[in-house]
Amino acid sequence: MTSPAPRVDDLTQGTAVLLIGGGTGLAAGLFGAGGSAVGTPLPHLAGVPPFVALASPLPTALPVALVSSGAYRRRRHLARRVLTWSVAVELPATVAGALLTPLYLTVLGLPINRALATSLAVSAALALPGSVTHWTLGHVDRRVTLAHTAPAVPAAYLGARVAVRAHPGRLTRLYGVALVPLASALLLR
Questions:
Q1: What is the pTM of this model?
Q2: Which of 22, 77, 111, 117 has a CA that sits 20 to 30 A from residue 170's CA?
Q3: What tens digit of pLDDT does each residue of 100-157 get?
């Protein structure tokens, strides 16, 4: 039997989680990723205990991915065959968010909006098992999840709306620029 996760009570941490949720949602909508890369380490840096920082933002991935991929889908950017294969091989959700968009862009040659839309849809499908597991183990703090999700969902929709209207070349370059800090952090580790 596992002990329940430590709870987050500090107003400063709650405010930080709200801001992080909004930023994570916006990044997800714009770039088809951001949850694992941003949504986990930043709450921990704000003082959220490690397991809570890992598990509590995970349930946010499902509504964020559904809302933002829906904006892409309405513009017919979803690559359904790629989505089906990606989910069928059950790629881990962290791999999906961090690597699928670049894989779809470089290996499969998908246009940026199709790559982003498909990555988001795959992330939605793969976030559910991890969310249920962490919830069952008691790692999820509902207050952190709510504080993270409340701004993330509308921000994701906004990000996706901006992305589907953006010039593909500019969006691709912006996506590349957004990856630089993440790659730098990994290289400097």
A1: 0.80
A2: 22
A3: 888 888 999 999 989 888 888 888 887 888 889 889 999 899 999 999 999 999 999 9
Q: Read off the amino acid at residue 41.
A: P
pLDDT tens for each residue of 17-42: 899 999 989 988 888 766 666 677 78
In the chain, what is the straight-line distance between the N-terminal and C-terminal CA atoms, in Å? 34
Chain centroid to CA 67: how far?
12
**Residue the block writes with tokens 């309405």:** 74
Q: Could you give the 3-state DSSP secondary structure of residue 127? A: helix
DSSP state of 46: T
Quick one: which of 123, 122, 109, 120 has its CA closest to 168?
Answer: 109
Measured between alpha carbons, how far is 27 from 159 in angstroms, rounded to an integer? Answer: 7
* Amino acid letter, residue 101: T
